[in-house]
């Protein structure tokens, strides 16, 4: 289902992947610095989640300014929260590369505002989190991650040139949130692995995301 979400004097293009049965939880998903919501990895994850009973809303926000991207993400969260059609008890924010930075930024700001949106957000999924620029490991983009309290899943390639394995493990060890890292062996930042098809890699990623979501929703209900 295509929707246009009002955003200032513009709008954000978004698409719902709707499961057959009514979903109580949803995932909001966005792309990295290049591309849009039709990036194949996002389409693959959205349809996988919907076919496993999880509502997924993916959106496009062009713009390389992280504050602007985070503002757009927050607008989409508000939109879904107030939706009469899909009454959800909570959402997980998810993004690829820069999209995951925007998601982390939104969660940090909401938790600092004592906003009731904070309870609505159940967790964060970071696909290829860009911890640093290529070859510039001295400056880490970890400030938002250290403030987050909700569960976080990282899925990163062990050969990601923007997320050196030991550096991410170091940041994760300092995080206060419940966290999980799933490494895709030999994958680069774009999740390409020599000798494996994109579909094969996506199957691994999609299954990991879904099982982590399910675990966290079950914990919530205990």
UniProtKB/TrEMBL annotation:
<dbReference type="InterPro" id="IPR046879">
    <property type="entry name" value="KANL3/Tex30_Abhydrolase"/>
</dbReference>
<dbReference type="Pfam" id="PF20408">
    <property type="entry name" value="Abhydrolase_11"/>
</dbReference>
<protein>
    <submittedName>
        <fullName>TEX30 protein</fullName>
    </submittedName>
</protein>
<dbReference type="InterPro" id="IPR029058">
    <property type="entry name" value="AB_hydrolase_fold"/>
</dbReference>
<dbReference type="InterPro" id="IPR026555">
    <property type="entry name" value="NSL3/Tex30"/>
</dbReference>
<feature type="domain" description="KANL3/Tex30 alpha/beta hydrolase-like">
    <location>
        <begin position="27"/>
        <end position="211"/>
    </location>
</feature>
């Amino acid at each position: 289902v295509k929707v246009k979400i009002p955003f200032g004097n513009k709008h954000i293009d978004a698409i719902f992947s709707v499961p057959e049965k009514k979903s109580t939880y949803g995932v909001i998903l966005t792309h990295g610095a290049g591309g849009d919501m039709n990036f194949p990895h996002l389409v693959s994850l959205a349809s996988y989640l919907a076919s496993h009973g999880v509502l997924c809303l993916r959106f496009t926000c062009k713009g390389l300014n992280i504050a602007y991207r985070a503002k757009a993400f927050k607008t989409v969260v508000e939109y879904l929260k107030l939706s009469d059609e899909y009454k959800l008890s909570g959402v997980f924010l998810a993004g690829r590369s820069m999209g995951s930075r925007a998601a982390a930024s939104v969660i940090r700001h909401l938790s600092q505002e004592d906003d009731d949106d904070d309870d609505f957000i159940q967790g964060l999924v970071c696909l290829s989190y860009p911890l640093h620029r290529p070859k510039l490991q001295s400056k880490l983009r970890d400030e938002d991650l250290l403030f987050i309290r909700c569960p976080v899943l990282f899925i990163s390639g062990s050969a990601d040139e923007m997320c050196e394995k030991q550096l991410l493990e170091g940041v994760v060890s300092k995080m206060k949130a419940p966290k999980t890292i799933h490494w895709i062996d030999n994958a680069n930042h774009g999740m390409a692995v020599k000798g494996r098809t994109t579909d094969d890699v996506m199957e691994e990623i999609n299954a990991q995301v879904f099982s982590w979501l399910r675990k966290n929703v079950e914990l919530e209900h205990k």
